[in-house]
Amino acid sequence: MSEIAVVAISIAKPGCEEQLRVALEGIVAPSRAERGALQYDLHRDLREPRRFVFYERWESEDALAAHGQSAHIGAYRKQIADWIEHSEIRVLKKIM
Questions:
Q1: pLDDT tens, 66-81?
Q2: Which CATH number goes with the domain that contains 33?
Q3: DSSP strand E in 1-96: where?
């Protein structure tokens, strides 16, 4: 198994920034407590305040897959469905 990183970007629909921010903040603590979570940090773009970015580090792809199937992530996805304009997830492996 090898460590992986994730960059997850969510862009709120206009007027939904604060609802999305609260929902995103709500998944930080339970995600950090998951087995295999090494880092789970939420950021907000200074120049585009509708853009939120997670930088995550996981022990393995299996740990990331379990995170994606967790109850709190499932509930979060249902909660934010109407607030998201665009989202993108990149799974990365460090090469140097």
A1: 999 999 999 999 999 9
A2: 3.30.70.100
A3: 4-12, 37-44, 51-58, 84-92
Contact by Cβ (8 Å): 93, 36: no
pLDDT of residue 96: 83
Exposure string of 80-89, with b = 16+ CB inside 10 Å and e = fewer, is: beebbeeeee
pTM of the model: 0.93
52 lies in which domain range? Answer: 4-92
pLDDT bin (cut points 50, 70, 90) of residue 82 is very high
Total domains in the chain come to: 1
